Amino acid sequence: MSSVSCLEWGIEYLRWVVPEPEGFELGIMWQEHDLGDYPSIGVQWDGPWSEPPSKFMRRCEEALRIFDRSVEWASINPSRVGGRFDEEDEALETDDGEDEF
After folding, report:
1. Paired residues of 30 in beta bridges
2. HSE on the CB side for 83, CA within 13 Å?
3. I need a surface site. Which of 18, 51, 85, 86 has the fewest CB within 10 A?
4. Neighbour tally for 60: CB within 10 Å
5. Angle, helix 3-17 to helix 54-70, in steps of 10 degrees
6. What is the DSSP letter of 37?
7. 76: nearest Cα among 88, 65, 68
8. What is the pLDDT of residues 57-97, one digit of tens each?
9. What percent of the chain has pLDDT over 90?
10. Which helix (H) or strand (E) holds 10?
């Protein structure tokens, strides 16, 4: 699972529990580092505000901590879950052709 996909899920969760104030937008931002660029969630805003929206950002940080603690990331890894369906499809191909519902 790509880190960008995980961040996109996080952004959708944040939009649900901590709605963006008018003029503010959550998005994926790329940070530069000596070892390579990496994505993170950032806040962009338009308008006369010169200071970051600290109250909104604190709420987002807390909501993301709760979200991250609540998701068992290893158990929903697409390569693990997708492999289960591949095994199931192989078993169905060797079945007698009758579907069970």
Report:
1. 39
2. 6
3. 51
4. 22
5. 120
6. -
7. 68
8. 999 999 999 998 998 888 887 777 777 776 666 665 665 55
9. 38
10. helix 3-17
